[in-house]
Amino acid sequence: xxxxxxxxxxxxxxxxxxxxxxxxxxxxxxxxxxxxxxxxxxxxxxxxxxxxxxxxxxxxxxxxxxxxxxxxxxxxxxxxxxxxxxxxxxxxxxxxxxxxxxxxxxxxxxxxxxxxxxxxxxxxxxxxxxxxxxxxxxxxxxxxxxxxxxxxxxxxxxxxxxxxxxxxxxxxxxxxxxxxxxxxxx
Length: 186
Description:
Helix content is 34%, strand content 25%. With 186 residues, the protein is of the alpha+beta class.
């Protein structure tokens, strides 16, 4: 039994992660108002998620998870939280939100921009679901937007390599394992 488990662990740790997609050209803005493009992401491993600052429930949990990932990541990895609410989440709003969650701006940044571009990047490139609630009759803030509760890991070449659902019991550990695996790739 031990040999089977060790054999599986060795084969799964050596198997490369699949290529699930690729980042295309985009221009968004970070929490300090600086442009972020596909070119500016080159040569680093990245972890992305989607949040919005007014959400008191799921986004708060996702940001807590990202904060824990931030504490465990090796050098050379960047974390990005993309807003589902770009009309409200301006750079100053995202800067306050990030500070409130312990984001180190040298590692973890927040992205906003024109809604059409944010949503295109989120859905077409990162394979996230993100949309305004089509039935906005509720006044609950956490129901304004519908979005994925996933983390996406992107390699140094801008290729989407792993998706980890945030509600998985060991989501943060899985994200860190994928990141370390991609850092070992040459």
